[in-house]
Amino acid sequence: MSKPPTGFTYAEAGVDIDAGNAMVEALKPLVRATRRPGADAEIGGFGGLFDLKAAGFRDPILVAANDGVGTKVKIAIETRRFETIGIDLVAMCVNDIVVQGAEPLFFLDYFATGRLQPETGVALVRGITAGCQEAGCALIGGETAEMPGLYAGEDFDLAGFAVGAAERGTLLPRGGAAGDILFGLPSSGAHSNGFSLVRRIVGASGLAWADPAPFAPGRSLGEALLEPTRLYVRPLLSVLREGSGIRALAHITGGGFPDNIPRVLSENLAAEILLDAVPVLPVFRWLAEAGRVSESEMLRTFNCGIGMVVVVDQTEADALETRLAAAGVVPVRLGRLVERSSGPPVRFSGRLAL
112 forms bridges with which residues in the sheet? Predict the structure, then answer.
């Protein structure tokens, strides 16, 4: 490339500072809608602030989590559907925070792209603010990075960072005992895990994103697969604050039941799961059939219809079941904890309804 007569500029190199500034201005009203006690939810400074005292905490322990959306973003890019992917970003972070028994307080996002399209950025942040509002946390900052040469064209990636808090002595997990009941909280779909396999199955099927979804009448395939991750924060915080007998929570993400449930169990306990009780969603039946995916692979790649597992004292199980349903999420009884001296920490009986 020869040097232009007027010399090189940042814009000529592919980075438009003015577009970035214009996007920030367009985002300010959306971000303000996430205000909550402890945060004024203004952006534009060098750092975001949060006042724990104003949020009502006396002796808090901070809990932090970060995550992304993975290759689900490729479906959003290829379908030009950007409104819900930000919900996924928030949900993947705050669902990890609530499993510690903590309340999500604030969120920050990182949006990196090859060429900034302000309308795309605004649509993404509209989803992020919707997720923050549903989770009760404030969006207090973020970063937009335009990096031509690292990302192709308008390709992008997203990362999110959430911080929550719990009063000292209230964190989860709180141990467990043989006989504890396992509840499953239904998912909304594949959430944000396993999409490299999802995209490979779609490619092999010959279907286009605009084609009717075989598992969701009235919706296109792309739209149905972009169904956002379910947020479990409000119903779980509601029952936790009432004193619920919950001993542990496990967010079912990549690794499914086999890898996520053991993270909250002591080594002397195992989870017995009745697969016949799992409310397998139509999307998973289609993926298993179209991709000839084995049951064991499905269980370790996808949530299969359960996005969160709740471990509860058996004496509190009936009351918790009623209270969760009243809080807006109807639980499914999946099984129980048993003593473990050897063998795997998660044991299955029955079959998934694939």
Answer: 145, 157
